[in-house]
Amino acid sequence: MPPTVVAVIPARGGSKGVPAKNLAAVGGVPLIARAVHECRAARLVTDVVVSTDDAGIAAAARGAGAVVVRRPGDLAGDTATSEAAVLHAMDAYEAEQGSTVDAVLLVQCTSPFLVRADIDGVAAAVVEGGADSALTVAPFHGFVWRDPEPETAGTDGGFGVNHDKSVRPRRQDRPQDLLETGAAYAMDAAGFRTSGHRFFGRTELVRTDPARVLEIDDPHDLHRARALAPLLDAAPGGHGGTPARPGSLPTLDDVDAVVMDFDGTQTDDRVLIDADGRETVAVHRGDGLGIAALRKAELKLLILSTETNPVVAARARKLRVPVLHGIDRKDLALKQWCEETGTAPERVLYVGNDVNDLPCFGLVGWPVAVAGAHDVVRGAARAVTATPGGGGALREIAAWLLGPSL
Q: How far apart are the first and last CA of the chain?
């Protein structure tokens, strides 16, 4: 059984340097949602928990697919530690889920350019590499100086912290310093409970791209993040779940796989029940044509449904599409399918209609809602069809991808 790895994002509402900081948008997406999306997309993360005392942050976190733990007032003040918030969130999660957390991650949403590879890096160091704790670091080549303490101040003035000021070696001749990024930490859960601190035992250093290191502490940091977002989000390894410009639609160059919900997406969400309790649904022939064209274009296809109704399997056989149904956690099933098929999640188009599709939206590069989907789902989507579920929405998506060749 794979280990239970829970990412905890502490996000209190009382920021003073940047009011409502955790809801500030970077690249058009609130900071809290950016962090949740990347955690959800990480290979090793089982669940994402946001610890907050703020109703607005809680709503945004839920919309992005996170579990929300209400943080008590004594853990939400300026002097409360992140460790205390994480321990409280672990306890609440285990009590609600009835399961034990094996490893816990502390992820800071104020690092807007943290990516899933970094999250998986610290998680893997603990659950696969045997480390007790891990953190993201970046190469650092600066000369650090410090003012003398007043009681020891002499005529020499400032002094070097990581260098002797009388020696000026070339960068390649200096030992490599590493800067703690403040973005992601991982801890063995049992050891974390015992130590109460994020660094204990063997601590693994996980190197990340220094270009992505930015912590938002003041308005100037936020301005820089917004200026950098168009460059860094579009770069390889950037935020795959970040919504695109309104009105942009995917093409075959953007997508390797199409994963489809069933009820409300391939049907109009109604079920007809006869006197013997047998259920029937209506589907659209145009969807069958579109799916056949996608299969001919050699895209990977999957039907993913929580329903156990045999009609789902029957429709999948008719379409000649693999199916996973009767699934309680669609996001975990999707993550495992991507890993087994060698599919990059950022190149998956997932189409759904209701709130149980939101965790999958956070995993993929192209979350798509059908017309008539729940308001929250349409708001989280990167694109929305003009056609409702059961009315040819999949045929429309096939036309986006294949263009005139359809």
A: 43
